[in-house]
Amino acid sequence: MAVPEVYLAPGDALIEVEFATVCGSDLHTVHGRRSAPTPLVLGHEQVGKVVAVGEGARRAGGQALAIGDRVIWSIMVSCGDCDRCLKGVPQKCRQLAKYGHEQVRHGWELSGGFATHVHLRSGTTIVPVASSMPREIAAPLSCASATAIGAIDAAASVMNLDGATMLVTGAGLVGLTVAAAATDRGARVIVSDPDPSRRANALRFGAIETVDPMSPAGLPDSFEAVQTRLGLQDGLDVSIEASGSSAAVAQAIDCLDIGGVAVLVGSVHPAGRVQLDPEAVVRGLKTVRGVHNYAPKHLIDAVAYLEERHCAYPFAELVGTSYPLSELDEAIAEATTGGHVRVGIIP
């Protein structure tokens, strides 16, 4: 699709995309697991360079946005004035618009990351990224990495993570980022995933043990066996569910010790209902929190965390292969195989 002209309103910016990654949400849309208006430009994990600015365009910290800045940006555009924005959940703005999710319309044709350029609208959180950060790490900041930091923040608001035992279900990019960042905050992290290669990967991101959720109780890679080895018969302090599996959601709640907190972040498409024992929640003083997308703070914190720690873990290796934008269909097909945590797109 060619766009003959772009009009930048006050606060807007035009970005030349450097690199993008295929998120699981893109695949859900392509394969019909979530509805989306068409036509649309997919893609909401990307990094790029500012090539034009509207009057008053600013970074998240309030500084003027400048041509040449290397930036990432929030998945959402928020109005900043509605009741939801004012109470601190701009990701649920009454006037919410989302990059990579909106129907193409006149005046905002460049609304997704699988393109050469993206038109950022006023109300987008724009964060500069150091030139030293590899593009493979910078691009997913806009979705998976910021969401992971949001999930950790939700858990930390209930439970001190230093010394806590944590179960992370799902060793995709969100789960692996949670494992690394929680480990850096002093947690002892167990990662559960049915894929043996992803379980092995989790050990490189700070996990002290891994679990095969399909393994019978008697085998050494079962959850029960790991609990026994670690002396956790009373349960865990924290669980972060990043897979979207209904069975994993149930385990994330059931595995908690007294006063534990479960953060659900992976259930972004229908996956069946989960049976909940309310008495166990009440008597166990359990907290269950949902995290969808993230607040601007989490994007800023994710950039700061990965600028400091991206060399400590093999984040760059999570993009297993990349395709030119002209081969987007092939890239999505490759991502659908599940053989890579992320597949890259090079405009």
Automatic annotation (TrEMBL):
The keyword DNA-binding does not apply. Residues 174-303 form the Alcohol dehydrogenase-like C-terminal domain. The keyword Membrane does not apply. Keywords: Metal-binding, NAD, Oxidoreductase, Zinc. SUPFAM superfamilies: GroES-like (SSF50129), NAD(P)-binding Rossmann-fold domains (SSF51735). NCBIfam families: HpnZ_proposed. This is alcohol dehydrogenase. Its EC number is 1.1.1.1. Residues 10-124 form the Alcohol dehydrogenase-like N-terminal domain. One of its GO terms (molecular function) is zinc ion binding. Belongs to the zinc-containing alcohol dehydrogenase family. InterPro entries: ADH-like_C, ADH-like_N, ADH_phosphonate_catab-assoc, ADH_Zn_CS, GroES-like_sf, NAD(P)-bd_dom_sf. It is an enzyme of class 1 (oxidoreductase). PROSITE patterns: ADH_ZINC. GO terms for cellular component: cytoplasm. Pfam families: ADH_N, ADH_zinc_N. Its cofactor is Zn(2+). The lineage of its organism: Bacteria, Bacillati, Actinomycetota, Actinomycetes, Micrococcales.
